[in-house]
Amino acid sequence: MPACPTIVVMGVSGSGKSHVGAALAHACGVDFVEGDGLHPAANIAKMSAGMPLDDTDRQPWLEAVAAAIAMRRGKGVVLACSALRRAYRDVLRGADPALRLLYLRVPHDELARRLRERQHFMPASLLDSQLATLEEPAADERAIVLEAGTDLAATVATARRALSMPARPARG
């Protein structure tokens, strides 16, 4: 069994998925997959223009994320993926039924501040559409919910404890 399961770090844009996910992957010594990098060019263009994605737009992206999970199943991997709706998360679970969800919950004002301060194809103007789309994970999804603040090290440490993740073995 891998030291790290398949973990999807989920939440709306600006919640810290990429930073937390990369740090978790590094701590476990497994691959990190940035879900944004799997979007088709048409999705990026649409979001860059300030238009929210619909389910038809998201489908090829979700299939690409699921393929990235399936390719690493049983090896341990951490992915950053908004996974805003349960139906989207179900697609990802189809690639690895044992995947774990780490949901980063951040207050609206903090999300808006983060989005205004970063360089990304997802403009701050789409925050409200993402929040409207978000279906927080249900109890049967076995998600770990973290109130993700600004202290990355503390958030990662809390996530590792909640996920019962061991430290990466020392290299000798």
Highest-level CATH class = Alpha Beta
Major beta sheet, specifics? 5 strands, parallel
Give the C-alpha Rg. Answer: 15 Å
- Return the structural class: alpha/beta
CATH superfamily: P-loop containing nucleotide triphosphate hydrolases
Overall domain count: 1
Residue runs with pLDDT of under 50 for 5 or more positions: none
Secondary-structure element pattern, one letter each: EHEHHEHEHHEH
* Spatial order of the strands forming the largest sheet: 2-3-1-4-5
Query: Which architecture name does CATH use?
Result: 3-Layer(aba) Sandwich
Would you give an account of this structure?
With 172 residues, the chain is an alpha/beta fold. It has a single domain, classed as Rossmann fold. The chain contains seven helices and five strands; from the N terminus they run E-H-E-H-H-E-H-E-H-H-E-H. A five-stranded parallel sheet has the order 2-3-1-4-5, sandwiched between helices. Helix 1 crosses helix 7. The longest helix has 18 residues. It is globular. The protein starts with 5 loop residues before the first strand and ends in a 10-residue tail after the last helix. The model has no long low-confidence stretch (mean pLDDT 86).
